[in-house]
Amino acid sequence: VGPVQTLRQEAKPTPVQVTVSLGEARLELDGALPQLSSLDGLDVQLALQGPLPDKLASRLPKMVQQLPDDYQLEGHLHHQARTWRLEDLQASVGDSDVAGTLALDTGGKRPTLQGDLRSNRLDITALTGGTSSRSGSNNTENTPAQDQVMPDFAIAPASLRKVDADVHFTGDQVVVAGLT
User: Fold this and answer.
1) Mind listing the pLDDT tens digit for each residue in 38-49?
2) Residue 66's CB: how many other CB atoms inside 10 A?
3) Residues 6 or more apart from 153 whose CB is under 8 A from it?
4) HSE (CB half, 13 Å, CA atoms) of 106?
5) Nearest-5° Cα angle at 142, 160 to 92
């Protein structure tokens, strides 16, 4: 962290570099912290890679718990007022990749997620806990039957009303239950 005195000066951000390791998972932040009393104006380069430790993963949604261990995420994170924005996102999870921009506005009646994402290859089955058609993984616990497009897991209708989303997605290849 830069000089502590700059944390008290509202007009001058303090440089910050943070590395956190939890088991094999690693989080790195490099950028500027505006002030101690607020994250407003946060501007950092973010890098995250796994696998998530079991104790942390068990507190996350089931779909996140089932992500392959070989994930990486990088991007530029900004926070202004009630909006978190991740730009220059580059992520890979197993055989899938995603790039683009995401913004979460927490200031309305419900949070609003906006984004523009693109992918060369997105393997839905592997991302939802099934077997990747490319990797040959032996995880068959949630693999869909041959005549199903999506794996069996419940989506509570109330959870769909917790966040509004307007996300544009362009994919070169989308794989669902082995179908491209």
Assistant:
1) 788 889 999 988
2) 19
3) 62, 63, 128, 129, 142
4) 7
5) 70
